[in-house]
Amino acid sequence: MNTVSTVKKCRALAFSHPLCALLGYFVLFLLFMAPEADAFGFAGGDGSEANPYQVDTAAHLDAVRHKLDLHFVQTTNINLGSSRWNDGEGWEPIGTEDNPFTGSYDGNGFMISNLMISNLMMNNSACDRIGLFGVTGEGSEIRDLGLVDVDITVTSQDRGLDVGALVGRNQAEIANCYVTGTLTAEIDFGGMLRAGLMIGRNHGDISDSHAEGSVSATNLDRNVSGANLRRNVSVGGLIGQNGDGQTDNRDGGDILNSYASVTVVGNSDSYNVYAGGLIGRKGGGGDGAAGDVIDCYATGDVTADAADGGFAARAGGLIGRVGSSWVGT
Hints:
The chain is mainly beta.
């Protein structure tokens, strides 16, 4: 709208008729007193906790990455199956290790369909946490959201991976979320691999959530020497690894009232494999607490195959390997 032209016309009308004057002043009010539209075009809101930005398109969802510390609510189902979001490498995860998502995302009972990530990474520290959200920070929250028909296939060279459809590395509180689809992750030339259909590596509390589909994680041996390249594979139907311990002693979250109905496959040509129907590895061998698992279950086949030479291949219907903490019915 040409504001200057509109103002001139309204002023002219104001001199010709009293009713036109009232109309003109009303138009001026709308033009100059209404709040300015958000630069990223959200459907509404101001990003505060009381009035979150409204997300109702794939473009709005993509814009979340530009406001990582604010609050969002989804207002309709979103399909990421169009060419902009499923060509090439597909979706770019929201949040990195240096700049994690620290706000809140309320799915409001709606779903996001056809999330696709297909990525070959070579020493790219910004992209080794893979999911709808790459990294979520302390104090963040994701709730009431479904991811349907996800398709993730990721290969990394020379460095580790945390891969999950919802979050690669999670510190958020997650409640009432679900994932369906397939996830395949592979390390070429070694590195730590943690893959879960919902969460790759977890440090946040998760409740009333579930996953259905398949997840596969493989660490290939390319005859490259070096102890730093001979690392574990942890793969689970819901979570790859809950807690850490070996690198930064971060606690795992508590997992409550959640389940997975997932086919889980873990392979390694160079080190140990921990595969679980719900969680691949619970704890990490250090001082970090592993978190409790209460009122959870898993169904689906679980297989683990490790390298020869004394390496462990541990497969569990619920958890592949359990550290210190408690598992309850």
